[in-house]
Amino acid sequence: MDYILQSLETQHLKTDLPELHIGDTVKVHKRITEGKNERVQVFQGTLIARQGSGPAESITVRKIGAHGVGVERIFRLHSPRVEKIEVVRSGKARRAKLYYLRGRAGKSARLKEIRR
Which of 1, 46, 102, 112 is most buried by its number of CB atoms within 10 A? Predict the structure, then answer.
């Protein structure tokens, strides 16, 4: 029974995902439906967390919005709504979750860039 579920799940996994690391600045292109219209909205921010595995894998992306307000969104990696994910720059992180960035603003919220 588990084998059947696993084979169904692996059919829906995306294969074109880039290599994502915590601390990377990413652009997530998400398809949004407004009434009858459908458009792609881009959300750019720092990858602060990664949860789950397989089809349930998700990432948390944080950006600083208007007036210095922090905005976090959780995206399912293998969702059909997520068009594509681009890595803009790679950041150096020494831990798996960067929740400490929530309490920081300005220059102290920056991460050093590394070349991959």
Answer: 46
- Residues whose CB falls within 8 Å of the CB of residue 9, separated by 6 or more in sequence, listed in order: 54, 55
pTM: 0.88
| Cα 109 to the center of its chain, rounded Å | 18
CATH topology of domain 2-100: SH3 type barrels. (2.30.30)
Question: Is 22 in contact with 93 (CB distance < 8 Å)?
Answer: yes
Please provide the distance, in angstroms rounded to a whole number, between the alpha carbons at the two ends of the chain: 41
Region of 109 on the Ramachandran plot (φ > 0 left; ψ -120 to 50 alpha; else beta)? alpha
Over residues 3-19, the pLDDT tens digits come to 777 777 777 788 899 99
